[in-house]
Amino acid sequence: MILITGGARSGKSRHGERLAQEMAGRVMYIATSMVFDEEMAERIRHHQQSRPAHWRTVEAWRDLPAVITADNDPEEAILLECITTLISNLLFDLVGDTPESSWDYAAIEAHIEAHIDRLLTACAACPSPVILVTNEVGMGIVPENRLARHFRDIAGRVNQRLAAQAEQVWLVVSGIGVKIKG
């Protein structure tokens, strides 16, 4: 498993796409984003148009071990974009319309960690090269609001777990990938 991290618009996706292309002739692109508004729809269109047309796209974030399995083709690289969006989806799926004041952040993190555990198990069993893209959200100022602070903390701990299990970790800054592990 390879983890690629970096800030927003740092070139993480492009770096992951390049690595996936180099590793295998075929790529399964797992898209975790959901369309909530026109801006997100445009971002998704941009990502879709930048990928080669022959890549297989799977839109999934709930049950990733059903997509990343021991039966995957070792000649098809898997590129999952992105962990941070996955965390956001899991968080909001769990809390639904309940008011933030009633959220139990420890329970939310435990829920997310359980999904990450299953993802890590699936990646370890999968014969395909697996590349995970995530955002490094902890390098800026401490967010002003409670949700953003908890999200930053949860994402940071998830990234640490993923990096610990990854064979390689890349940090992408200004479009330049620097291998920091492996």
Secondary structure topology:
Layout: E1 2-6, H1 12-23, E2 26-31, H2 38-50, E3 56-59, E4 76-81, H3 83-95, H4 105-125, E5 130-133, H5 146-165, E6 168-173, E7 176-181
Parallel strand pairs: 1-5, 1-6, 2-3, 2-4, 4-5
Antiparallel strand pairs: 6-7
Helix pairs in contact: 3-4, 3-5, 4-5
Overall number of structural domains: 1
Strand residues, percent: 15-25%
Strand order of the largest sheet: 3-2-4-5-1-6-7
Low-confidence stretches: none
Shape annotation: globular
CATH architecture: 3-Layer(aba) Sandwich
CATH topology: Rossmann fold
* Count of helical regions: 5
Number of strands: 7
* Helix-strand sequence: EHEHEEHHEHEE
Largest sheet: 7 strands, mixed
- What is the assigned CATH homologous superfamily? P-loop containing nucleotide triphosphate hydrolases
Backbone CA Rg: 16 Å
Query: What would CATH call the class?
Result: Alpha Beta
Structural class: alpha/beta
Terminus-to-terminus distance: 11 Å
Helix content: 40-55%
Task: Kindly report the average pLDDT value.
Answer: 93
Structure notes:
There is one protein chain. The protein is of the alpha/beta class. The protein has a single domain, classed as P-loop containing nucleotide triphosphate hydrolases (Rossmann fold). The protein is 43% helix and 20% strand. It has helices spanning 12-23, 38-50, 83-95, 105-125, 146-165; strands at 2-6, 26-31, 56-59, 76-81, 130-133, 168-173, 176-181. A seven-stranded mixed β-sheet has the order 3-2-4-5-1-6-7, with helices on both faces. β2 (26-31), α2 and β3 form a beta-alpha-beta unit. α3 crosses α4 and α4 (105-125) runs parallel beside α5. It starts with a strand and ends with a strand. The model has no long low-confidence stretch (mean pLDDT 93).
